[in-house]
């Protein structure tokens, strides 16, 4: 029975049966919204199979089990071939794309640092002046030095 009321739980209401005091579904499917939630679970897994599964799950963990079963049933109704695996694949792909984006951002950051470093290095050099021809006196001194070296 649904919590303290005389009406059946949502699962028993959907199955059109009397709700027993020890109904395994009663704590998880209220009489108002429960039938709609239970419909997908019954369609995909069957009420008997879900009941057996829940009896094998510790009471403290049944709520999480029901939420998981309901999610999987809804996913299977939306995508009969892949079910919730399609959502898992989509999340993995999204994660991979975000990882690639982060890597590209890191690479762009390193390139920017490298470019800044190159600019800093270039700014430390003095611009080249056009070389002028040596003066006649400088050439004369060099020629004299060369001649002396050749004589010795």
Automatic annotation (TrEMBL):
- A Pfam entry, by short name: LOB
One of this protein's GO BP terms?
A: positive regulation of DNA-templated transcription
Domain (LOB): residue spans on this chain: 7-109
Q: Which InterPro entries does the entry link to?
A: LOB (IPR004883)
GO CC annotations, alphabetized: nucleus
Q: Which PANTHER family match?
A: LOB DOMAIN CONTAINING PROTEIN (PTHR31529), LOB DOMAIN-CONTAINING PROTEIN 16 (PTHR31529:SF23)
- Please report which protein family the annotation says this sequence is part of: Belongs to the LOB domain-containing protein family.
- Name under which the protein is recorded: LOB domain-containing protein
Say which species the protein is native to: Rhododendron griersonianum
Recall the taxonomic lineage recorded for the source organism: Eukaryota, Viridiplantae, Streptophyta, Embryophyta, Tracheophyta
């Amino acid at each position: 029975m649904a919590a303290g009321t005389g009406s059946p739980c949502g699962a028993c209401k959907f199955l059109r049966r009397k709700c027993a005091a020890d109904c395994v579904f009663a704590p998880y499917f209220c009489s108002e919204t429960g039938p709609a939630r239970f419909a997908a679970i019954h369609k995909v897994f069957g009420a008997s199979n879900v009941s057996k599964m829940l009896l094998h799950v510790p009471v403290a963990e049944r709520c999480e089990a029901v939420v998981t079963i309901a999610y999987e049933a809804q996913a299977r109704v939306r995508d009969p071939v892949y079910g919730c695996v399609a959502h898992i694949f989509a999340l993995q792909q999204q994660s991979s794309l975000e990882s690639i984006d982060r890597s590209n951002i890191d690479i762009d950051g390193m390139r920017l640092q490298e470019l800044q470093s190159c600019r800093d290095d270039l700014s430390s050099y003095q611009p080249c002046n056009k070389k002028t021809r040596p003066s006649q006196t400088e050439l004369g001194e060099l020629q004299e030095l060369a001649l002396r070296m050749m004589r010795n």
